[in-house]
Structure formats: C-alpha cells, structure tokens
Amino acid sequence: MHKKILTHLNEAILLFNQQLDLTYINTSGEILLADSAKHLLGLNAKTLFKSSASLLSDLQQCLTNNEPLVDRELNLFYLSRSVTINFSATPLLENGQLSDILVELQQIDRHLRISKEEQLLAQQSTSRMLIKGLAHEIKNPLGGIRGAAQLLEFELDTHELKEYTQIIIQESDRLKALIDKMLGPNKPSNKETLNIHEVLERVRQLVNIEVNNNIKILTDYDPSIPDLKADKNQLIQAVLNIVQNAVQAIQHDGQIIFKTRIKRHLTIGRKRHKLTAKIDIIDNGPGINDELMSQIFYPMITSRPEGTGLGLSIAQSLVNQHNGLIECESEPGNTVFTIYLPLEADHVQL
C-alpha cells in the first residue's frame, strides 16, 4: 500500500540500503532522472550521483551520522541532463538499527525561473516609475532654465555674450533628449504580422555596415517558427541595442550568433504561453562581471565610460511591451542574451 502511495507522489522518492544501492524509485523519480526503474535499480549512489558531488556528500553524511539532512538548490547531473533540486535524506531505523535511507528530490528549476523573471519584471517596472518621477522633477526646471536663457539672449547686444546663452539652450536640449531617451518609446505600438527572422536579418544588415570584417555575425535559424504580431521597428531597436552591446564588448576579433528556436508551454512571469519564440544573441566577448550582472537592465548602468547605460533598459522595455522578456547568462567567452516573445495572444494565468 505504501509503495502505491509513493508511486503517485509528485516528488521523486528514492530508497537506498546501507551500501547506498538503490532499492526503490517512484514514477516521479524516473521522470526526474529520465531513466527507467529497470535500469536504475541496483545502481550505487556513487554511480548514480558521480557527477553531483554535493548530493553524494550529503547522502554519505546522512549514512555516517544517522541523522536527517536537508539541502537546497543542488545541481543534479545524470545522463547529460542537469536539474536544480531540493534534497532531503531521512534514515529509516529497524529495531534501532539503520536499514535504509529515504531520499526526496524536488525539482525547483521552474520555480527559480519564475522567481527570477518576476524579479526582472518588477525591476523594470520600478525603474520606469522612478525615471518618470525623476523626469518630471527635472523637465520642469529645465524648461524654465531654457526659457530664461532665450529671454536673456534677446536682451544681450554682443555676439560673444549670446554664445553663452546658446550653450545653456543647447545643453538644456541635450539633457531633455537624454531624459526622453531614458523614458523610452512613448508612441503606441504599431503591431503587424511578421516573422522574427525579418527583424534579425534587418539588424544583421545594419550591424554589418558598422563593424569591420573581424567580427562575424552567424545565424542558426529555425525556419518553422510561425509569424507573430509585433511592432517591427520596436523589435529591431531592441535586438539592435543588444547586438551593439555585444560588438562593443568584443571590440576586435570575435563572432556573434543569432539563434532561434520554439519553446512550448513556457511561463513568463506568471503567464503561461503555449508557443514562444526564443531568440539567442550569443557573443564570445569577455563576458559580464558578476557585480554588473544583476543590474544590467537598470538605466544608467554601464561598464563603459562613454556609455549611457540605456540600451539594455530600453530593449527590455520594448520586449516587455510585447509580453516578452530578456534574460542574460554570461561567462568569459560566452554571453547569451535570450529574448522570449509569445507567439499567441492567449495565455493561461497561473
């Protein structure tokens, strides 16, 4: 009866004997490891978890100390597959002696991803609110400064003095333009049916004109991706901002890859979409340091002295307007910006 209950649990349940040989695994465990009980039963934990040192260490510690143990966010590697899990090991006693170890594995990749996406979306929303408030506080006195400079210019007789008022007017205009850029696009989206590869090819043409032959732009497209309804110019701008960042990071020799794939039943924030276009922009530049990584979608955050730090913030805002999201993973020699764009209007609220 107890095995029937364990079989239908959503969590993966594994039972090991004193020698750490696997003696039982439920259906959820087979799904998690993507392998059958027939093949798994009898395997020793050292074989099963040979690529998961932390998990194996926890299991051996439970066996040695004869005490329950819980560990969180461990990486489980099996058959070239990697998942993030919460781990729980409980020693089972029989007549006061250890007989077996009950192991529970809970896959949490999806929960971590949703949490990360919600953080990104909240970050974007908060930054836009702050910018709007800041823009209002700056634009009003800035307009007064510009107007006063214009009035003063009419009262001045010499060209030399008027040069100073012109500087005030020009710098006021420059600051206003910078604030407008920080606020991002304020025009309503002009959505039309298009293929995402039209956008990527347009960006590739624009960037090829600017870069030298030392930076190559390669493509790995999935031609089966259906059309989506989107604002072509906004998506071009979003992708272009990301690619220009990659070009500036590479500087000299390197390559950028445009890769497209379909993702099914993908959750973005709390919305689940049946079909989503996944666009990877991959460069082999030096990567983004860890300190900057958590802030890259904030406005005015940049590692370049001449940069404004607005490109990625604007790109994220434009993709958000299409119910999508941009994520980033980076290490030296491999930085991947991933754009997710739902391919259908309807979605399931979680």
Write down the domain tally.
3
Termini separation comes to 33 Å
Any idea what the CATH superfamily of the largest domain is called? Histidine kinase-like ATPase, C-terminal domain
Taking pLDDT < 50 over at least 5 consecutive residues as the criterion, the unreliable ranges are 346-350
What would the principal axes of the Cα set say about the shape?
elongated
Question: In percent terms, what proportion of residues is strand?
Answer: 25-35%
CATH domain topology of the largest domain: Heat Shock Protein 90
| Count of helix runs | 11
Classify the helix fraction into a percent range.
Answer: 40-55%
Question: How confident is the prediction overall: mean pLDDT?
Answer: 82
Largest sheet: 6 strands, mixed
CATH class of the largest domain: Alpha Beta
The Rg value, from CA coordinates, equals 28 Å
What class would the helix/strand composition place it in?
A: alpha+beta
Total number of β-strand segments?
13
Corresponding CATH architecture of the largest domain: 2-Layer Sandwich
The ordered string of helix (H) and strand (E) elements is HEEHHHHEEEHHEHEEHEEHHEEE
In words, what does this structure look like?
- By secondary structure, the chain is α+β, with helices and mostly antiparallel strands.
- The chain folds into three domains: 2-107, Beta-Lactamase; 112-183; 192-349, Histidine kinase-like ATPase, C-terminal domain (Heat Shock Protein 90).
- Helices cover 44% and strands 29% of the residues.
- The chain has eleven helices and 13 strands.
- The chain has helices at 2-7, 27-33, 37-40, 45-48, 53-65, 109-155, 159-183, 196-210, 232-250, 290-293, 311-320, and strands spanning 12-17, 22-25, 69-78, 81-94, 97-107, 192-194, 215-220, 228-230, 254-268, 271-283, 325-331, 334-342, 348-349.
- The strands form three sheets. Strands 7, 9, 10, 11, 12 and 13 form a six-stranded mixed beta sheet that branches.
- Helix 6 runs antiparallel to helix 7 (159-183), helix 8 crosses helix 9 and helix 9 packs antiparallel against helix 11 (311-320).
